[in-house]
Specification:
single chain; 135 residues; alpha/beta; Rossmann fold; 3 helices; globular
Amino acid sequence: MIRETITIAVDFDGTIVEDAYPDIGRPIIFAFDTLKKLQSQGHRLILWTYRKGRTLDEAVAFCKENGIVFYAVNNSFPEEEFDITHSRKIHADVFIDDRNIGGLKGWGEIYQQLTGEAAPAKSKTQKKGFFSFLK
């Protein structure tokens, strides 16, 4: 369970959206909801992706349209300048990527693992049958 804020690096293709590179795939269920919730709790989100140039700009704009503005993009902090003499590896406490061993967990499970909060209980809705009006 997180008791303090952390820095979370998040991949884009296959993680936030379905992989359709160089296009932008459909949002993965609960990805933006989870990221917004984590961000509202003070966690720093870094977009950490293979994309660059126009395709990176499109991904950043897509995320902004869906309510996420990243602390940094492909950098450890906003002011960092990329230098080819240094590793491109960024500093983050957690990396969320579809290329993890075992694949990407569901965003609900990711949120639960990071926060320790239980998943919301599903409401029990009963389907109405054809003759339900007789009850």
